Amino acid sequence: MKSSRWVRQWRSSSSQHGWVAIGLHWVSALLIIGLLALGIWMVTLSYYSQWYHPAPHLHKSFGMLFAAILLFRFIWRLINHQPEVQGKAWERQAAHYGHRVIYLLLMAIVVSGYLLVTAEGAVVSVFDWLDIPASPIQFERQADIAGWWHRWLSYLLIACIALHIAAALKHQLIDRDGTLSRMLGRIQ
Amino acid sequence: MINKRLITSLFLTTGLLAGTAASAADYVIDTRGMHASIQFKVKHLGYSWLDGRFNSFSGEFSFDESNPEAAQISVQIDTGSLDSNHAERDKHLRSDDFLDVEQFPDASFVSTSASLDAQGNGSISGNFTLKGVTKPLTIEVSSVGAGDDPWGGYRHGFTGTAEFAMSDFGIDYNLGPESKNVYLTLNVEGIRQ
After folding, report:
1. Given Cys at both, which of A21, A99, B4, B175 links A17, Cβ 3.0 to 4.6 Å?
2. Touching check for A120 and chain B: CB below 8 Å?
3. Which residue of A has its CA nearest to B83?
4. What angle separates helix A19-42 from helix A54-78, to the nearest 10 degrees?
């Protein structure tokens, strides 16, 4: 038990993630992995599967919930310090750009999913509780184009997540710099 | 009236000069003014009809009251223009589970024989190409009406219906036992050339 002390503050500092940032990270992780798995599975369902309608409905609902969380996360990131990235210079650079790429992918996947569903003016129903209207701007072959990007950017995201996890484990287990335990709320 | 007679006689003269190739019986389907539609319907679970259409197509036909058996029609359909008023379903229908419009962007019907009365009621047989598969198809035809339009032209409109099994054209996605067939309705208004 080198360190059993836990972060107490909500806000992030230049050395620690606050609880809000930590919570956002792990809730996002859970939602992203769940949405990716659900998305890959649901497109294989046959027409007579009892999940044929509920699975996409859940995917869209949790997807829009994730969009709200992502938006809040951007705001939170803007009004908080960022803990310094650990590692060698090139690692810090790679992490800097890598995180931005993941954020961009997440945004693009959310937007393309929304454009796919609303391509012909339909609303996105969130848990049968909230209807998000279609964008007033529509374009030719919107569902096909948005669907193509939604699928392939998601595959790219999976590759980025694999790298992200590998890098976190490398820092934690090989460099032993506590990058992962910092994201779990341990004080360094 | 004099003008009209003059034009008619000019047409007849031109027709005589050109032989039988260009007769007064050639029509172009009015897709510019969209007085035409190609609709399809499939039963949903056997409980109701799912309706859709192709928004983009073109075609021409020939029909001569004095020689109705010589009638011909050809129609080209842009399969990507499929529209069933539901974005996710349309995307699915355009995918390779159904029409695979990326690989097969065109469908067509080209008639080979006609069995019509002088009004244009009867049937037309021909080759229907869908998803790269060409098979014979017979369209039941009824004439809706014909005559001068208010803008100096002459129009003749028909309704045609046809039915085929999706599996005949390589579409094997299982929509259920009651939903194996597609019913086509073609509403065509031709403007005489």
Report:
1. A21
2. yes
3. A120
4. 150
